[in-house]
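A.,

Following up on our hallway conversation. Structure tokens first:
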């Protein structure tokens, strides 16, 4: 009996997407509205947020599936702030509990980035530059730039499905 050996390429491991980092002080819904307006897309809030660390940390996510071009657009927050109460021993009548705010990041290597726009398709350089120029034309956005996804250490956090 003959033995058949299948060798799979590494092409299946690498998912092709474009990642754009966005710096701004807008709320997520406002940024989604402005991106929809300037890029001609229709981002909508998903019914559930991205949950990590046993639902202790969650990030808001907006997405849109372009069925004509077979492209999925996702806008995800990079920052999650959680408040916890510090347990203290009460020694007097006027002691109060302290609130501690902890900040978590979806991609810790980009702590200054507020949002990421992930486009599940590889665009040509000119198309990517066109998208970046449209994003930068929004006055409320401080800056935006492309991120090389092959250099990311925590790229597993960008798997939304």
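Then the amino acids I'd put at each of the 161 positions:
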């Amino acid at each position: 009996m003959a033995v058949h050996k299948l060798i799979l390429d590494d092409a299946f491991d690498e998912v092709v997407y474009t990642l754009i980092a966005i710096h701004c002080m807008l709320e997520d819904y406002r940024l989604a509205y402005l991106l929809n307006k300037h890029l001609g897309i229709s981002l909508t809030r998903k019914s559930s947020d991205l949950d990590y660390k046993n639902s202790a940390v969650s990030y808001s996510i907006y997405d849109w599936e372009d069925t004509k071009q077979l492209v999925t657009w996702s806008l995800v927050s990079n920052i999650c702030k959680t408040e916890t109460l510090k347990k203290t021993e009460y020694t007097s009548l006027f002691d109060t509990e302290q609130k501690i705010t902890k900040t978590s990041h979806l991609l810790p290597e980009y702590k200054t980035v507020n949002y990421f726009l992930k486009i599940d398709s590889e665009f040509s350089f000119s198309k990517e530059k066109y998208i970046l120029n449209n994003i930068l034309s929004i006055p409320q956005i401080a800056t935006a730039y492309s991120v090389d996804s092959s250099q990311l250490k925590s790229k597993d956090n960008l798997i939304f499905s």
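The chain has two helices and ten strands. Curious whether your intuition agrees with the design.

B.
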